[in-house]
Amino acid sequence: MSSDPLYSLLYTSQAVTPFSAGQLDRLLERSRATNEDLGITGMLVHLSGSFMQVLEGPRSAVGDLYYRKILRDPRHGAVEVVTEGDIAQRQFAQWTMAFEDLAGETGARPEGFSNFVSGGFSTELRGEDQSLTVAILGKFREVFGPRDAFDARDELRHLAG
């Protein structure tokens, strides 16, 4: 077993130009292949050109991916780490890259699409995992969504209903 600690990094970014459905699909395909090779799991959330991504895996692999690839990707800017640190266990172990398009802009669901937020998240997540989901989505809406009052739990109930 590797001595490299399990690590999580959550960041946000803005697309420089809008992504088409095909571009998002290709991004997901490449991300999933890369993540599988590196032992990284996580989730990507998209809303109207804004992205939030959680990466988790060996600290060196997550760091290399973020600092050597993601920060240098010209397709997005305003890249900002929200939180990072060692973790005891993965929150997204079943996904090389779960994906949620909060605006539904991609149309057809890509292969491996996650119902993490809509339709069935409650059967996939339990206890603290569900709290993490609410916190992540709340943070995403806080950063990129409307500036009026927003309750992530109400939004999750609305999306799941």
Question: What would your notes on this structure say?
Answer:
The chain has 161 residues and is of the alpha+beta class. It has a domain at 6-114: Alpha-Beta Plaits, CATH 3.30.70. Helix content is 37%, strand content 25%. The chain has 5 helices and 5 strands; from the N terminus they run βαββαββααα. It has helices spanning 21-38, 59-70, 121-124, 128-144, 152-160, and strands at residues 6-15, 41-47, 50-58, 76-86, 98-101. Strand 2 (41-47) and strand 3 form a beta hairpin. The chain starts with 5 loop residues before the first strand and ends with a helix.
CATH topology of the domain at 6-114: Alpha-Beta Plaits
Which outline best applies?
A: globular
Cα-based radius of gyration, to the nearest Å: 15 Å
From the helix content, strand content and strand pairing, which structural class follows? alpha+beta
The side-by-side strand order for the widest beta sheet comes to 4-1-3-2-5
Q: Give the strand content.
A: 25-35%
**Helix content bin:** 25-40%
Separate helix tally: 5
- CATH architectural arrangement of the domain at 6-114: 2-Layer Sandwich
Mean pLDDT over the residues? 72
Q: What is the element string, with H for helices and E for strands?
A: EHEEHEEHHH
Residue ranges: pLDDT <50 for 5 or more in a row? 105-130, 146-161
Strand elements, count = 5
Q: Report on the biggest sheet.
A: 5 strands, mixed
CATH C-level of the domain at 6-114 = Alpha Beta
| Distance linking N and C termini | 42 Å
